[in-house]
């Protein structure tokens, strides 16, 4: 055995309990699997699962497992994109289906990693919490026999009594917020327990985050609603345009409230490099909470949602809804409404359809349905040469329409989009040249259909619509609290150092008190020697050093007592 190994072993033996672990972290030991017995295998598996290296490995796997959920379309977020992906990748899509990559966060393998990490963290935290509680109830260990073995050490001689030095040291350490007590001929003190508390808080906060994430996924709800100025909404499933929720969500969990969209206001930069950038983007609504709540008026802005209990109402989109009137050949109004059109670009170039499903008869009196494709620009500029809006506000609105008649297919039982026109059973109206009938309409203009089929009028009234997203996330508050606690706990575990200090004062052979001070930290750090030097300087002022003995002075002769034998 080398001299270094011998000295290290002696150091550990001399320090004893004083040199024990300065943390509650379990010591990692690589143990071989048991050879016999079900109980032994279970115990061995549990120790591996609750070890720190396995917890870190599971955390890494969870991070890697979340990557496909960000790169591959998810059915819970956008089912339409998933269908587009299936159509574009007919060979790869079945493989993704078997692996659960279209619903990563609810897949079996992601849930297995999630649950194992949850169990691993609990298995680590519970014993460490009990151990930390025991350390708080106990006292710092007594001083080792040889303080010179510690990394930070100082000593001096003083004429003060040992008891006075120890009392002064005890008062000084307690004033510096050390947990200190007298142990035989020394004062034992310890500080930095918040480091271990921060470590435990960090791990507990991770569990809180996992629970909050799980509850949020299981009980969440997320729905969207497009509302034209003047429309109303009640928080019930049939009222949503699109709705998705967690697996444990029930319709009774929806927060009861309702609101009306009074008007929408949007203003934009008129000039400069930011021309067209929104300056004001807000919706004024009147709402009531609960079944019998009082009506209140408020304004919903981007990133400033309306909060009603656990529900939040966000303003997420905006567009225009031109008011159109459709008449039959006899001039009777068969359709009159604001038609919301979907924006295609930042200047709100929009398109959509007008569907006349009931009440229309052709010139011969036969029941028929009408469909109009609409293309709208709020600011038209003929100099541009294109049917694209040059500004998002209503400066020079223009509506382009073309017309079809026949069967819209709305009675077939197959769902269809309100923004698309199914032309399978529709015929286009033609102009005098046999071309598709179409016309650019300014507010107030009318397109007359051929052969007395009727007309469509672009009214001067142009309304605006706003898209709202209603979100309920029951675990949002817990997730925020867990994240803040994790940050604080991690900061405490990184910047607070747990350390121990001992002060021994004993009377030497020559009757002069010898003071020894030593410090020990969890890891090598300059903070422990600096702090020990500061404490030693203060204690030295209270118990100043005594002059060193004169090594050159001759020893006094010993005179035998009278009557003693020579």
TrEMBL record:
Extent of Basic and acidic residues compositional bias: 1-13
Database matches in InterPro entries: Cyt_c_bgen_Ccs1/CcsB/ResB, ResB-like_domain
Region annotation Disordered: where it falls in the sequence: 1-31, 539-566
Positions of the ResB-like domain: 52-532
Stretches that traverse the bilayer: 54-72, 108-130, 200-219, 478-496
Membrane topology: Multi-pass membrane protein
Signal peptide: none
Main location: membrane
Domain of life: Bacteria
UniProt keywords, alphabetically: Cytochrome c-type biogenesis, Membrane, Transmembrane, Transmembrane helix
Localization annotation: Membrane
Pfam families registered for this protein in UniProt: ResB
Protein name: Cytochrome c biogenesis protein CcsB
Gene giving rise to this polypeptide: ccsB
